[in-house]
Amino acid sequence: MTDITEHLSTIRERVRIAAQHAGKSADDVTIVAVSKQQPADAIQRAYHAGQRHFGESYVQEAERKIEALAELDIIWHFIGRIQANKTRFIAEHFHWVHTVDRERIARRLAEQRPYHAPPLNVMIQVNLEGEPQKGGVSAADVEPLARTIVSFDKLALRGLMTIPPAGLADDETAAHFGRLAALAADLAARGLPMDTLSMGMSGDYEIAIAAGSNCVRIGSAIFGERDG
Fold it and tell me: Global pTM?
Protein backbone atom coordinates (compact mmCIF):
# COMPACT_ATOMS: atom_id res chain seq x y z
CA MET A 1 0.00 0.00 0.00
CA THR A 2 1.27 3.46 -0.87
CA ASP A 3 2.44 5.33 2.23
CA ILE A 4 0.49 8.52 1.64
CA THR A 5 1.47 10.01 5.00
CA GLU A 6 5.19 9.55 4.26
CA HIS A 7 4.81 10.95 0.76
CA LEU A 8 2.99 14.02 2.04
CA SER A 9 5.69 14.61 4.63
CA THR A 10 8.38 14.47 1.94
CA ILE A 11 6.49 16.84 -0.35
CA ARG A 12 5.83 19.33 2.43
CA GLU A 13 9.52 19.44 3.23
CA ARG A 14 10.46 19.91 -0.43
CA VAL A 15 7.85 22.65 -0.78
CA ARG A 16 9.22 24.32 2.37
CA ILE A 17 12.75 24.33 0.95
CA ALA A 18 11.62 25.54 -2.48
CA ALA A 19 9.52 28.28 -0.92
CA GLN A 20 12.41 29.36 1.30
CA HIS A 21 14.69 29.61 -1.72
CA ALA A 22 12.03 31.75 -3.42
CA GLY A 23 11.84 34.06 -0.40
CA LYS A 24 8.49 32.72 0.77
CA SER A 25 7.09 30.65 3.60
CA ALA A 26 5.76 27.15 3.04
CA ASP A 27 2.45 28.53 4.31
CA ASP A 28 2.34 30.71 1.20
CA VAL A 29 2.10 27.63 -1.06
CA THR A 30 -1.10 25.57 -1.26
CA ILE A 31 -0.63 21.89 -2.03
CA VAL A 32 -3.61 20.50 -3.94
CA ALA A 33 -3.61 16.70 -3.78
CA VAL A 34 -4.80 15.52 -7.19
CA SER A 35 -7.13 12.70 -6.23
CA LYS A 36 -8.67 11.88 -9.61
CA GLN A 37 -8.86 8.11 -10.17
CA GLN A 38 -8.09 7.58 -6.49
CA PRO A 39 -10.59 5.88 -4.14
CA ALA A 40 -12.28 7.73 -1.30
CA ASP A 41 -10.26 5.81 1.28
CA ALA A 42 -6.99 7.17 -0.18
CA ILE A 43 -8.38 10.69 0.16
CA GLN A 44 -9.33 9.88 3.75
CA ARG A 45 -5.78 8.75 4.50
CA ALA A 46 -4.36 11.96 3.09
CA TYR A 47 -6.94 13.98 5.00
CA HIS A 48 -5.97 12.31 8.27
CA ALA A 49 -2.34 13.16 7.43
CA GLY A 50 -3.35 16.82 7.45
CA GLN A 51 -4.15 17.40 3.76
CA ARG A 52 -7.20 19.60 3.13
CA HIS A 53 -7.09 20.65 -0.54
CA PHE A 54 -8.00 18.00 -3.12
CA GLY A 55 -8.30 18.26 -6.91
CA GLU A 56 -10.72 16.37 -9.14
CA SER A 57 -10.97 16.38 -12.94
CA TYR A 58 -14.15 14.43 -13.71
CA VAL A 59 -17.56 15.48 -12.42
CA GLN A 60 -19.15 12.04 -12.35
CA GLU A 61 -16.23 10.61 -10.36
CA ALA A 62 -16.14 13.63 -8.06
CA GLU A 63 -19.85 13.34 -7.26
CA ARG A 64 -19.36 9.94 -5.62
CA LYS A 65 -16.36 11.02 -3.59
CA ILE A 66 -17.76 14.36 -2.46
CA GLU A 67 -20.89 12.57 -1.24
CA ALA A 68 -18.92 9.81 0.49
CA LEU A 69 -16.62 12.31 2.24
CA ALA A 70 -19.21 14.97 3.01
CA GLU A 71 -18.45 14.89 6.75
CA LEU A 72 -14.86 16.03 6.17
CA ASP A 73 -14.00 19.71 5.79
CA ILE A 74 -12.30 19.17 2.43
CA ILE A 75 -11.64 22.09 0.09
CA TRP A 76 -12.45 20.79 -3.39
CA HIS A 77 -10.67 22.09 -6.49
CA PHE A 78 -11.93 21.32 -10.00
CA ILE A 79 -8.88 20.99 -12.25
CA GLY A 80 -10.22 19.28 -15.38
CA ARG A 81 -11.72 20.50 -18.63
CA ILE A 82 -15.21 21.85 -18.06
CA GLN A 83 -18.15 20.61 -20.07
CA ALA A 84 -21.02 23.08 -20.26
CA ASN A 85 -23.54 20.45 -19.15
CA LYS A 86 -21.52 19.72 -15.99
CA THR A 87 -21.22 23.24 -14.60
CA ARG A 88 -24.09 23.01 -12.11
CA PHE A 89 -22.45 20.36 -9.96
CA ILE A 90 -19.14 22.23 -10.07
CA ALA A 91 -20.84 25.49 -9.10
CA GLU A 92 -22.72 23.84 -6.25
CA HIS A 93 -20.03 21.62 -4.72
CA PHE A 94 -16.53 22.92 -5.48
CA HIS A 95 -14.67 25.73 -3.75
CA TRP A 96 -12.13 26.43 -6.52
CA VAL A 97 -12.08 26.00 -10.30
CA HIS A 98 -8.69 26.19 -12.05
CA THR A 99 -9.76 25.71 -15.65
CA VAL A 100 -12.12 28.47 -16.76
CA ASP A 101 -11.33 29.34 -20.38
CA ARG A 102 -14.62 30.55 -21.91
CA GLU A 103 -17.08 33.32 -21.10
CA ARG A 104 -19.95 30.84 -21.47
CA ILE A 105 -18.50 28.61 -18.77
CA ALA A 106 -17.86 31.55 -16.44
CA ARG A 107 -21.42 32.78 -16.91
CA ARG A 108 -22.93 29.36 -16.21
CA LEU A 109 -20.83 28.92 -13.06
CA ALA A 110 -21.92 32.35 -11.84
CA GLU A 111 -25.59 31.71 -12.56
CA GLN A 112 -25.55 28.26 -10.96
CA ARG A 113 -23.59 29.14 -7.82
CA PRO A 114 -26.06 28.87 -4.91
CA TYR A 115 -27.17 32.23 -3.53
CA HIS A 116 -26.17 31.22 0.01
CA ALA A 117 -22.67 30.10 -0.99
CA PRO A 118 -19.66 32.42 -1.05
CA PRO A 119 -18.31 33.40 -4.48
CA LEU A 120 -16.64 30.55 -6.32
CA ASN A 121 -12.87 31.01 -6.54
CA VAL A 122 -11.85 30.76 -10.20
CA MET A 123 -8.67 30.81 -12.18
CA ILE A 124 -8.23 31.22 -15.90
CA GLN A 125 -6.39 28.42 -17.65
CA VAL A 126 -3.83 29.84 -20.07
CA ASN A 127 -2.55 27.81 -23.02
CA LEU A 128 0.68 29.69 -23.68
CA GLU A 129 1.85 27.43 -26.51
CA GLY A 130 -1.50 27.06 -28.26
CA GLU A 131 -1.51 23.28 -27.84
CA PRO A 132 -4.73 22.03 -29.46
CA GLN A 133 -5.11 19.05 -27.12
CA LYS A 134 -5.26 21.30 -24.06
CA GLY A 135 -7.84 23.71 -22.79
CA GLY A 136 -6.99 27.30 -22.01
CA VAL A 137 -7.05 30.70 -23.63
CA SER A 138 -4.19 32.45 -25.36
CA ALA A 139 -2.26 35.10 -23.45
CA ALA A 140 -3.93 37.78 -25.59
CA ASP A 141 -7.40 36.61 -24.61
CA VAL A 142 -6.86 36.47 -20.86
CA GLU A 143 -7.67 40.09 -20.01
CA PRO A 144 -11.09 40.20 -21.73
CA LEU A 145 -12.11 36.97 -20.00
CA ALA A 146 -10.76 38.22 -16.67
CA ARG A 147 -12.83 41.39 -16.91
CA THR A 148 -15.93 39.34 -17.65
CA ILE A 149 -15.29 37.13 -14.63
CA VAL A 150 -14.89 40.06 -12.23
CA SER A 151 -18.27 41.38 -13.38
CA PHE A 152 -20.03 38.36 -11.84
CA ASP A 153 -20.91 38.70 -8.15
CA LYS A 154 -20.82 34.94 -7.57
CA LEU A 155 -17.31 34.46 -8.97
CA ALA A 156 -14.04 35.57 -7.37
CA LEU A 157 -11.19 35.82 -9.85
CA ARG A 158 -8.04 34.60 -8.11
CA GLY A 159 -5.41 34.21 -10.83
CA LEU A 160 -4.04 32.02 -13.59
CA MET A 161 -3.25 28.35 -14.21
CA THR A 162 -1.08 26.66 -16.82
CA ILE A 163 0.29 23.25 -17.78
CA PRO A 164 3.59 23.34 -19.68
CA PRO A 165 4.13 21.16 -22.74
CA ALA A 166 5.43 17.67 -22.06
CA GLY A 167 9.09 16.88 -22.55
CA LEU A 168 10.59 20.30 -21.80
CA ALA A 169 14.00 20.67 -20.21
CA ASP A 170 14.00 22.23 -16.75
CA ASP A 171 15.09 25.63 -18.03
CA GLU A 172 12.35 25.58 -20.65
CA THR A 173 9.78 24.64 -18.02
CA ALA A 174 11.02 27.49 -15.83
CA ALA A 175 10.69 29.90 -18.76
CA HIS A 176 7.13 28.73 -19.39
CA PHE A 177 6.17 29.32 -15.77
CA GLY A 178 7.96 32.66 -15.83
CA ARG A 179 5.83 33.80 -18.77
CA LEU A 180 2.65 33.06 -16.82
CA ALA A 181 3.97 34.87 -13.76
CA ALA A 182 4.82 37.90 -15.90
CA LEU A 183 1.35 37.84 -17.46
CA ALA A 184 -0.26 37.74 -14.02
CA ALA A 185 1.89 40.65 -12.84
CA ASP A 186 0.85 42.68 -15.89
CA LEU A 187 -2.83 41.95 -15.27
CA ALA A 188 -2.46 42.86 -11.59
CA ALA A 189 -0.94 46.17 -12.65
CA ARG A 190 -4.09 46.71 -14.71
CA GLY A 191 -6.22 46.32 -11.60
CA LEU A 192 -7.28 42.68 -11.93
CA PRO A 193 -7.20 40.29 -8.94
CA MET A 194 -4.18 38.03 -9.33
CA ASP A 195 -3.21 36.54 -5.98
CA THR A 196 -2.85 32.90 -7.10
CA LEU A 197 -0.66 31.16 -9.67
CA SER A 198 -1.59 27.49 -10.12
CA MET A 199 1.59 26.07 -11.64
CA GLY A 200 3.50 22.88 -11.06
CA MET A 201 2.71 19.18 -10.74
CA SER A 202 4.52 16.15 -9.36
CA GLY A 203 7.47 16.42 -11.74
CA ASP A 204 8.06 20.16 -11.72
CA TYR A 205 6.53 21.77 -8.63
CA GLU A 206 9.85 22.99 -7.27
CA ILE A 207 10.62 24.71 -10.58
CA ALA A 208 7.15 26.26 -10.46
CA ILE A 209 7.58 27.58 -6.92
CA ALA A 210 10.88 29.16 -7.92
CA ALA A 211 9.02 30.91 -10.78
CA GLY A 212 6.33 32.27 -8.48
CA SER A 213 3.73 29.53 -8.07
CA ASN A 214 1.78 29.52 -4.83
CA CYS A 215 -0.52 26.62 -5.71
CA VAL A 216 0.86 23.25 -6.83
CA ARG A 217 -1.21 20.30 -8.05
CA ILE A 218 0.40 17.03 -6.98
CA GLY A 219 -1.01 13.58 -7.66
CA SER A 220 1.34 10.66 -8.24
CA ALA A 221 3.97 11.95 -5.81
CA ILE A 222 1.34 11.66 -3.06
CA PHE A 223 -0.83 8.73 -4.08
CA GLY A 224 1.54 6.75 -6.30
CA GLU A 225 1.03 5.98 -9.96
CA ARG A 226 -2.56 5.32 -11.01
CA ASP A 227 -3.52 2.01 -12.54
CA GLY A 228 -4.33 2.05 -16.22
Answer: 0.96
